[in-house]
Write a structure and sequence with these properties.
Largest sheet: 5 strands, mixed
Distance between the termini: 44 Å
Order of helices and strands: HHEHHEEHEEHHHEEEE
Strand order of the largest sheet: 2-4-5-9-8
Number of strands: 9
Radius of gyration: 19 Å
Shape: globular
Length: 228
């Protein structure tokens, strides 16, 4: 085996190990930020909210990288159970509290209280949180989280009043096996991760998928996650 082949084989494992080390250091930093922000003198200092938000965002990106590595190396297992969809939306909203405070944005939720779905709770919350984070960064004043049942799917929807998704992104069909296009179209790690997590949720002959368009009732972007 050539040195180039050996390097190609070992690099993903080396990268995953490095990410673990970075996460450990970041956990220490996040702890220190929380302690400093808890100080009464710093309670209303927006700089600490910004630090907390950015450190959480880095941590979530690292988690997504690790999960994608596990998926690619066939070491990934979903923990499927039944959950309240309303509780999922509330958790996703709570994750973005610092950004809402910093930018004075409004976020609303709309979901039947008796709606339930079968999913991996942590991964779905992480995935939706990533999309919501992006929506909050590009919206103008408001974002709406909603969910409903459509045929054999539970649909999670995120609407905003920003400028909408770019045309090259809307042309990608997430149902087709075009995962490489998510990255080449500058959608970034988050949308690629969400697409993969959705795809891994299956029931009978159906599997999860995502759809993007600019048909938000607020005039901006609309993201939908379909879970069977």
């Amino acid at each position: 085996m050539s040195n180039n082949q050996q390097t190609s084989i070992d690099f993903p494992t080396i990268l995953a190990s490095s990410i673990h080390d970075i996460k450990n250091s970041l956990a220490t930093v996040r702890g220190l930020i929380s302690e400093m922000a808890a100080d009464q003198k710093n309670a209303e200092n927006k700089s600490f909210y910004q630090l907390e938000f950015e450190s959480n965002r880095i941590n979530n990106s690292l988690i997504q990288l690790l999960e994608l590595y596990k998926i690619d190396s066939s070491h990934f297992i979903l923990d499927i159970d039944e959950y309240s969809v309303s509780e999922i939306l509330q958790e996703v909203k709570a994750q973005q509290a610092p950004l809402l405070y910093l930018n004075n944005l409004k976020i609303t939720t709309d979901c039947p209280e008796d709606l339930h779905c079968y999913c991996d709770y942590d991964h779905i919350c992480n995935a939706l949180g990533s999309v919501l984070n992006n929506a909050l960064r590009y919206t103008t004043t408001q974002v709406r989280l909603s969910a409903y049942q459509e045929n054999n799917y539970i649909v999670f929807c995120i609407d905003d009043d920003g400028k909408g998704y770019p045309e090259q992104l809307l042309s990608i069909d997430s149902i087709s096996n075009t995962r490489s296009n998510w990255i080449s179209s500058s959608t970034g790690l988050g949308i690629h991760f969400v697409s993969k997590i959705a795809e891994l949720h299956t029931a009978k002959n159906n599997k999860g998928f995502i759809k993007l368009d600019n048909d938000s009732p607020f005039g901006g972007a609309r993201f939908r996650l379909f879970l069977p």
